[in-house]
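Tokenise the fold.
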Amino acid sequence: MGDELNREELIELLNKLGDSSESEILNSARIIHRKVTSAETTWNELLVPDHTDEDELSEDDSWDEDAPSDYDSWDVDSGTETLQDSDSSDALKIIEKLLSGKISDTTREELIGYKDDIAEGDFDKNDLKYLKALSGRIDKN
């Protein structure tokens, strides 16, 4: 039997992965890896349980299909539609504008990944909606 994982400690370490210090990020990642290994578990076992037992859910954890959601306005079904050239052009303009501003390294990497996705045809309407929302949030700051 391996060491027991402390959930709060693991969450604290995971939050440090967004730190601006590369040495802090690397150190946190190594500690997380060591803890998971010491617990004799895998990421698959931690993140994707074999089953969800309905009896294990508390009243607060139950799913309410009628509850409003931030995702209700995303129209997921139409999100996988292929973008028109004008949409791709708009997305690239937004990306370039955001890359020229002050953003975190993580956001910069995400935006560069989006540029690659556009070039490969893997950028869809939901991605464009997210990009526009991100741009709006960054512009407000």
Remarks:
- Residues 69-79 have pLDDT under 50 and may be disordered.
